[in-house]
Design goal:
The complex is a heterodimer of chains A (229) and B (666). Chain A is an alpha/beta fold and 229 residues long. Chain A is 34% helix and 27% strand. Chain A contains 7 helices and 11 strands. In chain A, the strands form 2 sheets. In chain A, strands 3, 6, 7, 8, 9, 10 and 11 form a 7-stranded mixed β-sheet that branches. In chain A, strands 2-1-4-5 form a 4-stranded antiparallel β-sheet, covered by helices on one side. Among the domains of chain B are: 161 residues, no CATH class; 123 residues, no CATH class; 79 residues, no CATH class. Chain B has a 7-stranded mixed β-sheet. Chain B has a 6-stranded mixed β-sheet with strand order 4-3-5-2-1-6. A two-stranded antiparallel ribbon of chain B has the order 7-8. The relative contact order of chain B is 0.11. The chains are: A alpha/beta (229), B alpha/beta (666).
Amino acid sequence: MPQILVGNDLHKSFGLTRALRGANIVLDEGEIVAVMGPSGSGKSTLLHCLAGLLTPDRGEVQFAGRRIDQLPDRERAHLRRTVFGFVFQFGQLVPELPAVENIALPLLLAGRRRKHALAAAAPWLARLGLDGLGERLPGELSGGQGQRVAMARALVANPTVVFADEPTGSLDSVAADEVMELLVDAAREQGTSVLMVTHEPRVGAYADRTVLVRDGVDALGPGLGVAAT
Amino acid sequence: MLLLLCLTGQSAEQGRAERSGWQSADPDTPATAPDPALFLTVTDYHQGTAMIRGYVAALGPRPPVPPGLERLPGPGEVAASPAMRRLLVSTPDDELDDRYPGRVIATIGDEGLAHPDQLVALIGRTPDQLGEVTSRSLHRVRGFGSLPSGYAFYQGIRVLLLLGAVLLLVPVVIFIVMATRVAAAHREQRLAAIRLVGATRLQAAVVAAVETGLGAVAGTALGWVGYEAGRRILAATLTFQGARFFVDDVVVAPWLLALVLAGVPLLATLTTIVALSRVQAGPLATSRHGRRPRPSARRALPLAAGIGGLLAAAPLRRVVDSETRETFDTLAPLFVILTIVGFVTIGPWLCMLAGRGIARVSRRVPGLIAARRIASDPSATFRAVSVVVLAAFAVTCSASLVDASGDGPFDGGRGVLRPGVVEVVTGGVPEAKVAPLLSERAVPVRSDIGAAGELVESCTELARVVTLSCSSSGLAEGGVSERAGLADTDLPISTVYVPTDRTPAAENRVRTQAANLVPNAIIHTQRDRIDTDAFFFGSLEQLQRLVWYFVLLVAACSLTVGMLAGVIERRRPFALLRASGLRLGELRQVVFLETAAAMLVTAAVGVGLGMASSYALALFGDMAWTWPDVGVFVMVGIGVLAALILSTLALPLLDAATRHDAVRYE
């Protein structure tokens, strides 16, 4: 499978704290990779560098063969809104927008007409078991429901890569399983690659491959990982 | 600081009234000296500026002395205010100095002046000289008290100022409440941490209240220091009724100061407690209710009752007897209060409608998020913009009435004087007394006491100097009648109209001559009247502008705080939206539109309702109503835009608040 996202020798420091010390990672097209490791090991920093949210101090990030870590912020923002999708632990939904508009947000940002964006968002409600909840505000949804809305939002624009940072961190195990099954199924159906950060082995088991990070370095060597069993 | 400034107007005007009270002393003024004095004051003018010309004659060795003087000026002596002394020096004698015969022996101190620039002179006379004056304004006084005889008028101004202060207090209080709520929202996360270690809800609330209280005490103390520094600048630059203030006038009463210093921290603390009662501060996090109750059309009822009540009562008021009319009149304030309350209650409903409308038509994300935000919490939105909107409502409402009252040249019931004509109202003196004024072109008006009317020799001649109703066929009702051969009668002359070459110097010479002939004469040119007229309405307009600028300043602060609140509350979703590719410019648009859309819609409605309310009020009170001057709309428009532009000062913080750090959830 061709490589879609590559991180080479990534270094990143926050003041005196060295979060990444030469991390390497490879993500293939349509692949689901879990980045695991203890707290403070640099998992989230690695994900943020790969997604263009942070600029690494050293090393390079390539997306579809093109180096993206040196792009100006504006171009990186364009990448994020067109080919990347994001799922975070919580608090990512715009509180004033009903669920269906939250899902349609990436399409609206991409310039799609509102009617078409909402029409494209609506099927996701049924697909994620959120029938009849489209007009609910985020504050009126349960944690699992809110996370499913966030998942739909990340996938609705058919992105090339979805970055998920502790996507089930605020959910109980039943809700976490539901959310992960939906994410994995939808990603496979669309051929979307997923890079997710988690510290839960149960969640990591949904990935094709696991990359362990320890002290800012991938513990198993460049581009390697533990294949899922 | 803003609160203290808006309470200052009261004491400033009271100080003026109390210090200048002696200038209208009368026999009812409490005695302060064993011997009486004869006292007469006349309001005079010099190139449109009012001057107080007083005459005094001691009737014993120990007469009362006005504040600001050590003794009464004796015959041939004059005491003048500092501004008057400067004016006397810089003006030719025949134009002004001769009006104050005598040697200037004393300067009236600040304790006897309404304001630093007041033009006052007190002329010493013998009792015989003053005894010749036949005027109801000549009084035998035993004291120069501190309250003016026209105190009711001053009370009226004070009521207006009090009303203005209350109107100014509202935006300040809203600002304090908003600022406190933002702080409360900011500390929600910390409160959750306190709850996590076992604190009860009450204990968490006490912690928040103490934090707020201490912060508010420090803030109030700083405000007080700022006020003390600012009031000196204000005294030197601010004018009201055409005059500056003494520094000591621009000060709040000690009890009021104590009330503010204690009240603001208390208000802030109470607001925190109320704000916290609306969130559930649990051990893991704080949460709010998902959907707030939506305002309904019922909110329009008080407004409809206020304006409708005035409109419905207006025709009835005209046909009922005077007693019932008085009852109607007592209802007027109720309708006005209902209208104002109605506007406040209808505001959130309007915001909600505006939000829904904008959401329906907006095609871009910033417009959609802003519209949804407005519609989801219209009360908070209206609270943020309410200050400007209420001010727009009040300014437009009052402008229609002020403008209507100010229309047309002021004639005081005595006609409009032709340019260059000086009117000398003597009150009725023998012809010999004013003979030097009776030049060929002068037109005297005589009083025929028996016929109870005023007479002139020729209506044509009278028309040359003044536009007074004049009849050549018998007595004219409310006007002057023509009677030939008046010059040969000994009827007293009540008024003399003296034409001049229209130069200020010539007019001043006539004034001086007239004042020396008849000290109690009331002397006017039309310019004086226009200036008096313009002065009064100009002061009202100036007050209106001051209130507007002040409100704008507070409003800009409120808007900025409102924007900050919106950002802090949604820091994480906004940061994540940015992470997902939403540009910072688009995020700024969201925050700006939330405020701008709500403000523009409600301000436009506010202006419309302001005019509707003033129209209803004018109709009810049989007052004239006119469309506000274009300048008023321009002033409101520029003010609204200025407040919005100032509020964008909060936008740069948006970048810092939604950077990468906020994406992390730790």
